[in-house]
Amino acid sequence: MLEIYKKLPKTNCGKCGVPTCIAFALKVKNAQLKIEVCPYVTQKNREVTTPKPMATMEDNYERVSSELEAEAKHTNFREAALATGGYFDTGKDGEVIKLTMMNKPYEMRKEGLFENNTYCHDSWAKIIIYDYIRRKGNKPFTGDWVTLGYFPHTASHVKAFQRNAEEKVASAFNKDMHGLKARCRELGGIETQGKMRADYICRFDLLPQIPLYLCFWDADEEFAASCKLFLDSSAEAYIDIEYLAYLVERFVELFIHS
Ligand code: SF4
C-alpha cells in the first residue's frame, strides 16, 4: 500500500471519490479501485502491480494481523508487559499479558489475542495490540501534549482527523457539557487538568501507555463548541502512527455513537 501511496500527490483533494490519498492507496491495493481513477498519477506511475482481484479489505487486515500475531507470539511476554504497562501472569493458559484497550480488557496469550476468554476475531484490535506488544515501547511519558500532526508522516491525516474526530465530538456535545461529562465517565475517562486552558479536560487510556486528552471548550453566544484531542509525544515509541490515527478515530466513533 505504501508503494502505491508514494506515487500519489498526497494532497487529499478527494477527486477520486475517496477523502484521503492513503485511503485511496488502500483501495487500489485491495483492487477496489484502479490507480488511474486519481487524475494526477503519471502514466509511468500507473505501472503499479495490483493484487489479485479476489483479495478483499478484510482479507488484507486478516493477513496483516496474522503476520503481526506470529511476531508478537515470539516476544518475551514478561519484558513486553513491563515495557507496555500490561500485567504479566502465568496460569493454566500459560504466559499471558493482560491489558486494556479503550476500557475493554484483552489477554495476549501464546495462541493469540483473547477477549472474554474467546479468541478475538476483530482484525483491527489484533493489529493494534500485536503491534503495541511487539514494539515494547518502554518510553516514559514526556508530559508534552501533542496533536496527531506532530508525528512524522501525518500531514495528510491532519484535516481528515480534525473532520472525523475533533469536529464530530464538538458538534455532538455542542451546548451539552453535562452529556459530555457523563459520556466521559461511562468510557472510564478521568477528569484532569493540564497545560491547556479548557472548560473541561478528560484523560482516557487508549492503551496502558497511550493516554489521550480530550479538551473541550463549550459553546458561548459567539462561537460553537470546539474540541482538541492530544496525545503524549511518547506515543510513537509504542505504536505505528497509522494505527494510532485509526485508534483515535475508533475511540471517537465509540465516544459518539454508543
Ligand atoms: S488519490 Fe484521490 S485524494 Fe489523492 S490526489 Fe488523487 S484524487 Fe486527490
TrEMBL record:
InterPro entries found in the cross-reference section: 4Fe-4S_dom, ACDS_complex_subunit, Dihydropteroate_synth-like_sf, DUF3786
Segments forming domain 4Fe-4S: 1-55
Single GO molecular function: metal ion binding
Keywords: 4Fe-4S, Iron, Iron-sulfur, Metal-binding
Name the UniProt record assigns to this protein: 4Fe-4S domain-containing protein
Lineage: Bacteria, Pseudomonadati, Planctomycetota, Candidatus Brocadiia, Candidatus Brocadiales
